[in-house]
C-alpha cells in the first residue's frame, strides 16, 4: 500500500509478479486497485513486465461456456468489476513503457494455495477427511488450476516475454472437471487410500445467505455461486500454441499433494 516502498523494492527488476491480495477479502474493494497502481508505478519506472494471475470473474454469463481471451468482459459481480479495472489499468500502463502478461485460470488449488474453494468450502484443512462438500451439481463442468502448474506456466511466459505483445493475455486449460464431481470423488478416493471414509454432501448455500452479513468470507463465496450453476471453460488453445504444451500435473497427483500440504493426510 506504500508506493515509494514498492518503487524502491522494484529497482533493477525486469519482472514484477503481482500476486498480492488483502487477506480474507477484508477491505478488498478499497485496497486492490491502489495496490495495482503502486505496482504499475514501479513497472513504469523500471520499464518492467507485470505478470498477473487472472480469474474468470471478469466475464459474465453472456460469454459462457467456452471463453476466449478477447471475449467481452461484462462481469457479474463486484470483484469482477474490479478485476476488469485492474486489467484496464495494466493495458494503459503499456502506453507508458511497462508491459503486462495476464494468465487466467480456473479455481486455484495446491499445497499452499491460501484462500481457495477447496480449502474454504470442500474440506477443512489440518483435519482428517470426514466430510467433503460439493458446491455444484453433477453434470455442470468446472475448471480447476493446480497452483504449481500456474507458476510453471508463468515462468515459461516470462522467458518469452520479449516475443509477446505489450499487453498479452492467456487462458490456462488447467484441470477441467467435465461432470463437476471429479474433484470431490478424487478427494474421497484418496481419503480411502489413507484409511478414511468421508461422506460427500451438498454445500449448504442456504447457510451462506444466513451468515453473509456476519462473515465476509461466506459473503464472497456466495457472490461467486453463479460459477457453480453453469459450466465455465477457459479456452486454453492460445497458450498451448505459444508453449507447445501446457504444464500439467496429473489429477490424482495434484490433489494428493494438495491434501498433504493442507494437513488432511499424512
Descriptive report:
By secondary structure, this protein is α/β, with parallel strands linked by helices. The protein has one domain: NAD(P)-binding Rossmann-like Domain (Rossmann fold, 3-Layer(aba) Sandwich), CATH 3.40.50.720. Helix content is 40%, strand content 16%. The protein has 10 helices and 11 strands. Helix 2 (28-46) links the parallel strand 1 and strand 2 (49-54). Helix 2 packs parallel to helix 3 and helix 6 (182-193) packs across helix 10 (251-261). The termini are far apart.
Main sheet properties:
4 strands, parallel
- Helix count from the secondary structure assignment: 10
List unreliable stretches of 5+ residues: none
Order of helix and strand elements from N to C terminus: HEHEEHEEHEEHEEHEHHEHH
**Computed Rg:** 19 Å
What would you call the shape? globular
Assign the CATH architecture.
3-Layer(aba) Sandwich
Going by CATH, the homologous superfamily would be NAD(P)-binding Rossmann-like Domain
Mean pLDDT: 93
Q: Roughly how many Å apart are the termini?
A: 38 Å
Amino acid at each position: 500500500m506504500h508506493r515509494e516502498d514498492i518503487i524502491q523494492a522494484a529497482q533493477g527488476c525486469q519482472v514484477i509478479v503481482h500476486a498480492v491480495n488483502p487477506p480474507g477479502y477484508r477491505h478488498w474493494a478499497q485496497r486492490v486497485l491502489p495496490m495495482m497502481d503502486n505496482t504499475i508505478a514501479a513497472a513504469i519506472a523500471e520499464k518492467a513486465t507485470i505478470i498477473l494471475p487472472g480469474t474468470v470473474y471478469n466475464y459474465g454469463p453472456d460469454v459462457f461456456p467456452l471463453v476466449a481471451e478477447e471475449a467481452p468482459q461484462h462481469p457479474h459481480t463486484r470483484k469482477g468489476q474490479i478485476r476488469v479495472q485492474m486489467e484496464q489499468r495494466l493495458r494503459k500502463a503499456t502506453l507508458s513503457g511497462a508491459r503486462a502478461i495476464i494468465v487466467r485460470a480456473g479455481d486455484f488449488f495446491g499445497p499452499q494455495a491460501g484462500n481457495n474453494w477447496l480449502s474454504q468450502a470442500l474440506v477443512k484443512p489440518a483435519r482428517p477427511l470426514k466430510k467433503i462438500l460439493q458446491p455444484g451439481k453433477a453434470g455442470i463442468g468446472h475448471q480447476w488450476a493446480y497452483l504449481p502448474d500456474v507458476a510453471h506456466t508463468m515462468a515459461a511466459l516470462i522467458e518469452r516475454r520479449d516475443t509477446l505483445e505489450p499487453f498479452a493475455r492467456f487462458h490456462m486449460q488447467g484441470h477441467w472437471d467435465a461432470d463437476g464431481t471429479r474433484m470431490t470423488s478424487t478427494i474421497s478416493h484418496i481419503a480411502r487410500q489413507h484409511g478414511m471414509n468421508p461422506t460427500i454432501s451438498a454445500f449448504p448455500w442456504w447457510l451462506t445467505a444466513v451468515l453473509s452479513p456476519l462473515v465476509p468470507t461466506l459473503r464472497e463465496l456466495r457472490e461467486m455461486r453463479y460459477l457453480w450453476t453453469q459450466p465455465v471453460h477457459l479456452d486454453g488453445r492460445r497458450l498451448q500454441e505459444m508453449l507447445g504444451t501446457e504444464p500439467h500435473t496429473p489429477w490424482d497427483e495434484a490433489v494428493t499433494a494438495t491434501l498433504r500440504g493442507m494437513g488432511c493426510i499424512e
